[in-house]
Here is the input.
Amino acid sequence: MDIKRKIEKEIERKRKLIEDSEIIMEEVPKHLRPNQEFVLEIYKSQLEALEQELMKLEGEDKLESEGKLKGANKSKKEDILVNKNKLKDEYMDLENIRF
Amino acid sequence: MAIINVTPLIDITALIVSDDVSEGDVLLLEEGIYFQTVNITKNYIRIVAKGPQVIFDGKSILLTAFTLSNVTGTAIEGINIKQYRANGMLIQSGSGNRIVNNKISNTIGNAIDVFGSSGNLIWKNEICSCSDGVRLIQGSTSNRVIENVVKECFDDGFESFLAPDSNNAFISNTAMRSRFNGLDIYGSNNLLLDNLLIDNGLGIIINEGSGSVAIGNIVKGTKLGTHFVFNEYTNYFAGENNILCNRSIGTENNSQFGIFMNNEIAYNGDNGIILGESFMANLVMDNELVCNIPENIVDGGTNNNFINNIDKPCEPCESPSDICGNCSYREDNSNEELKEGDN
Here is the structure.
């Protein structure tokens, strides 16, 4: 899978987990909340680390598009990755169809 | 050092933080249902199940069963974990922890997530219906993932997430019926040894890095792709892998300076081995390619060396489906059955 897309997907997933957890926190018995909040803080720090990773990649892409970074094979590689992703997405769609 | 008996009524996190527990102590968990998240922040704590019915049930409310944060030498053994909203086990910035013989099922996130951690052992765990079975991410290195069984996960069986996740070993694991990859391996110098990958979406993916080694893996019954090495990957070694009865190409390789030897690639529903345009300066030697349709070998690359490969077309009136139709996989004795078949 395309590295940028892979990180984006993970960020999306983590964001959703954090949002949902903050809502569900009210259903958690009070005496269990501190431990959940501890874990939630870890997920937030993970999200931050992933966002930084993505920003770094986007910065590299920008440099590359300006011709400052070498990436001879990259476009071809991305084509293959995109095709693989499409294949996966199509497969997922098929999986979701119930006859 | 002491052995401390623990019941489901005890807040284990608080117990660990307290002065009653010291490094090296064993928390011996009585059987019962535990509704809690255990955050371990002290080194060398050993959490051991007293019997098979030590169950951690998150009831789809709690995030993780066990969080190991910045710790070394923790052991978690013999616990049943189910229905947590994030991970069964999360190792965050930890090292040398031992996750052994646990059963993890029905987590929305990954069963075991290793984030920025090194030198951990993940051994003999049984995982079912999670996102990834075991995932190494954010610079997780030198971890040992051995003899785990992952079934019916809705993402990958085993994953090292990106290039910084390197020098890990995946040995004798089983991944069955994962929706996507059996082994999704990014990074350098990872070892994939004797793993069994059956009926997954894809088999082995190698990407971003150099020097990984795949030996003795069995890949069967994949649907989307089987053994895929992306371009710019260098010095990959694949030896004695059995790639049989997959729906698509046996091995699709776009890497450079790799070695492919003694692999058996047979009865796949597409070409046996495809060497892509950017596949160059590889050695392809002593492989046995049998009845892959339409071709056993398709070389679109440059400067590759082929030595002594067996290239057998299908017998008259033979097709992969004739052979693979009888390859239906039996869960209980799969390993034994396949390994006996090899001899």
User: Anything to note?
Assistant: Residues 207-343 of chain B form one domain. Chain B has three helices and 39 strands. The first strand of chain B starts at residue 3 and ends at 6.
